[in-house]
Amino acid sequence: MNQTSKIDDLDRDILQALMNDARTPYAELAKRFDVSPATIHVRIEKMKAANIIEGTEVIVNPKTLGYDVCCFIGINLYAARDYHSALAKLDALEEVVEAYYTTGAYNIFVKLMCKSIEELQYVLIDKLQAIDEVQSTETLISLQNPISRNVKP
Predict the structure, then answer these.
(1) For residue 114, what are the β-bridge partners?
(2) Around 24, how many Cα atoms within 13 Å sit in the side-chain half-sphere?
(3) Cys-Cys with 62: which of 5, 67, 97, 139 at CB 3.0–4.6 Å?
């Protein structure tokens, strides 16, 4: 399988089941799809090898840990050549949970999680805007996240 891997209906069913509950035992999947556990194992290993499945993760609820402010920040750099050094500095900020290199109005678009507006202000002024490569920023505060899902296999 290559970057645009072909998958069949069984692969899609396995992926959907694992996306719903990644801890589902292979034996249970085998019963559900009327195949052997070995078939499930082989299919999953092939999808891992093809980078269709990149791993499993624990999903943390940020609000229960006190992270009440989610925001997106569009970042303009002074020059395109500043991308790699700016990205390294952004990666060092624990508040940055996602970053995208984009076209359009911004060079980089990041998602930040903070515990309060005061913390966000500190991060913006003393950390993010203090990065030499950053020319300007625009901050969008998220009010809610009503849709969050993976792509359909």
Answers:
(1) 69
(2) 21
(3) 67
Interatomic CA distance for residues 9 and 113, integer angstroms: 38
Residue 30 exposure: Cα atoms within 13 Å on the Cβ side: 12
pLDDT digits (tens, 9 = 90+) for 68-85: 999 999 999 999 999 999
Measured CA to CA in angstroms, residue 34 lies from 19, 31, 37 at distances of: 19, 5, 9
* Rounded Cα–Cα distance for residues 52 and 45 (Å): 10
For 15-47, the pLDDT digits (tens) are: 999 999 999 999 999 999 999 999 999 999 999
The C-alpha torsion from 17 through 21 and 23 to 24, rounded to 10°, is -40
